[in-house]
Design a protein that fits this description.
Elements lengths: L4 E4 L2 E4 L2 E2 L2 E5 L22 H13 L4 E3 L18 E3 L2 E2 L1 H16 L3 E5 L11 H7 L11 H16 L15 E5 L9 H14 L4 E3 L17 E5 L4 H12 L5 E7 L4 H13 L4 E5 L1 E2 L21 E2 L11 H14 L15 E2 L7 E2 L1 E2 L6 E7 L7 E7 L10 E2 L8 E10 L2 E2 L6 E5 L4 E4 L9 E2 L4 E3 L12 E4 L4 E5 L6 E8 L7 E6 L6 E2 L3 E6 L9 H5 L4 E7 L7 E6 L3 E9 L1
Parallel strand pairs: 4-5, 4-13, 5-8, 8-9, 9-10, 11-12, 12-13, 14-15
Antiparallel strand pairs: 1-2, 2-3, 6-7, 16-18, 17-21, 19-20, 19-22, 22-23, 22-24, 25-36, 26-29, 27-28, 28-36, 29-35, 30-34, 30-36, 31-32, 31-35, 33-34
């Protein structure tokens, strides 16, 4: 990057050229953002590979600006591990800031500018203005008025802007990839004098970077002299009318950025909105929100838990996102990202080779996917050199959340196979992945993620399939929901040696299912099972209200070794509950 983004009047410039963009919110670039159920295994910092997949995604879509959301502050006496940037007044988390260091360096590598909010009022789930106030024993509103709390926030600003990046060697204030510093996310009660005070601090510390308004709900009659950019968020309402009104209010005074827009599956309306942005003087607009691939295979997931189907987008769009028109919206976004910059729409490149992750004894595995890949071909061979046979084609790495992506159900005990994976998209195919093998198959496996009931041998007519509010079910995509007395029966190709069932129930302590085994499918007997319960009672007020409304209180993992010669498994509902995965090993 040869230039910082600068402002002249109401226009942003990159050198001598006006700078405009379509972009995205990608909070997970710097945060452990799958926080809805506070599951410890999800509250992790993104690693370098994951962050790079995020920036490759932005680059491939030509999204030249990304907004990262706020830098959380830990609650007083928060137990370890602390997943926050600010540990307390004037105390900071080096582990967290190394994550930010990498993000800023990758932004420069991929020619993406970053808008970085410093705290949050609305959406302070991981620690925002109320947490700053709590450290001083005061109500959240004191954040904007109390001298001690304002001094605490200024200490954060000074630390962040002065921090020396461990990757680039530069202080953050000298990083050209940082478009600017936003006071915070949706600071809707921030008074003008507070914003003016903080704007002056940022301007003095980082004069080459922009100061960005923290409110999203109004445009002032007269801009503050130290605030370079004003921001609005559009959800619901008439986006085109709002754009016209807001643009006129700032005309000739300051640039306007639509910092968030979305939660709509109306592709045509989004297209009209982005055309209106391009045809106006608005600097740019960023969709809410996008995610990238997970180090253990597949993607990170973050459904909007107030909506039944809306979730973070996964490039280039998949069948699992069809409810919110993921594929159509993302390709439209990419097209408009080229148009607003007066650039021809570049062809989507063929994907790079995926990375097959290690596995042994069981043909259940995952891979680190390729940016822009929309499907994969799985191949196997007896020898490492081949010849290779196709096991499955058109496999998605966005059809399963936080679990193995693929099971070779044709593999049988005693066989030995080598595996590889090839990524595919409209641009072509990748070279093959690394080879894993020989994998000596210990068990055959039948796995049902309950997208349909096609893998079941039989079931009660009252069973219902559910794909709504997945954030309340650990982001797992599909469930079979039954009432007391309902049944679901599986038939294994060979006698079942081990089985595992994953289920959700209300906050009860007893196992919600009865497991029954049969050799012939006629005579069943109950079998003992080992059940592990994960309750959500400890979340209490931190749990989303929708969790309580839907009566979800516990997640279950139920394992058993059925009697010899068992080929049929019957799951019988003791109480109303949902099953979201069944694994049979034979």
């Amino acid at each position: 990057m040869d230039h910082f983004i600068t402002r002249r009047g109401a226009v942003l410039y990159e050198g001598d050229r006006p700078w405009r963009f379509v972009g995205a919110n990608m909070p997970g670039l710097v945060l452990p953002y799958d926080f809805t159920l506070r599951m410890p295994e999800r509250m992790i910092w993104p690693n370098a590979w994951e962050q790079e997949d995020g920036f490759r995604t932005l680059d491939q879509m030509n999204l030249r600006c990304v907004r990262t959301w706020n830098l959380p502050i830990a609650a007083p006496n928060e137990p370890e591990p602390v997943r926050a940037y600010v540990l307390g007044p004037n105390r900071f988390n080096e582990e967290a800031f190394v994550v930010m260091d990498r993000a800023i360096a990758l932004a420069e590598k991929y020619s993406v500018r970053m808008m970085i909010p410093l705290t949050a009022e609305a959406g302070g789930y991981l620690g925002g203005i109320q947490t700053y106030a709590a450290h001083r024993g005061k109500p959240s509103g004191a954040f904007y008025t109390d001298p001690e709390i304002k001094a605490d926030f200024k200490a954060t600003i000074r630390y962040v802007l002065s921090r020396r990046n461990t990757v680039t060697g530069r202080p953050y204030r000298d990083e050209p990839s940082v478009l600017g510093w936003q006071f915070g996310n949706e600071l809707r009660t921030a008074p003008p004098d507070w914003q003016a005070e903080m704007a002056e601090v940022i301007k003095q510390l980082a004069p080459r970077q922009l100061v960005i308004d923290g409110r999203d709900d109004r445009i002032p009659d007269e801009p503050d002299p130290n605030i370079d950019v004003y921001v609005r968020h559009y959800y619901g309402g008439d986006w085109l009318k709002n754009l016209e009104v807001d643009g006129k209010k700032l005309a000739g005074k300051r640039p306007l950025i639509i910092g968030e827009f979305g939660l709509s599956s109306d592709v045509a309306m989004i297209g009209r909105f982005l055309d209106a942005v391009r045809q106006s003087d608005i600097s740019g607009a960023m969709i809410w929100s996008m995610y990238f691939r997970h180090r253990d295979g597949g993607f990170y997931w973050h459904q909007i838990f107030t909506h039944p189907s809306l979730m973070s987008y996964h490039w280039p769009g998949f069948a699992s996102g069809e409810a919110h028109r993921e594929r159509a919206i993302l390709h439209l976004l990419r097209q408009k990202a080229f148009e607003i910059r007066n650039e021809p729409v570049a062809p989507i490149p063929a994907p790079s080779p995926p990375e097959l992750l290690p596995f042994d004894t069981q043909a259940m595995f995952s891979w680190r996917g390729s940016t822009g890949a929309d499907s994969y071909r799985v191949e196997r061979a007896e020898a490492k050199e081949g010849p290779w046979a196709v096991v499955a084609d058109g496999v998605s790495d966005a059809a399963t959340a936080y679990r193995p992506l693929f099971v070779d159900e044709s593999a049988r005990p005693g066989q030995s196979w080598h595996y590889r994976v090839i990524a595919k998209n409209s641009g072509g195919e990748s070279l093959p992945s690394n080879v894993v093998g020989p994998v000596k198959i210990r068990y055959g496996c039948l796995v049902d993620e309950l997208e349909s009931l096609a893998k079941a041998h039989s079931h009660s007519p009252g069973l219902k399939l559910d794909n709504a509010f997945n954030a309340l079910f650990a982001e797992h995509l599909y469930r079979a929901v039954g009432e007391t007395g309902d049944e679901l029966v599986y038939r294994s190709p060979q006698p079942i040696k081990l089985l595992c069932v994953f289920a959700w129930s209300g906050p009860l302590d007893s196992v919600p299912l009865v497991l029954e085994a049969s050799a012939d499918g006629e005579r069943f007997q109950a079998i003992e099972a080992l059940a592990q319960r994960r309750g959500f009672d400890d979340l209490k007020d931190r749990a989303p209200s929708q969790l309580r409304k839907r009566g979800v209180g516990a997640q279950w993992r139920i394992e058993a070794e059925p009697p010899a010669e068992t080929q049929f498994l019957r799951l019988r509902w003791r109480v109303p509950c949902a099953i979201d995965r069944v694994e049979l090993y034979y």
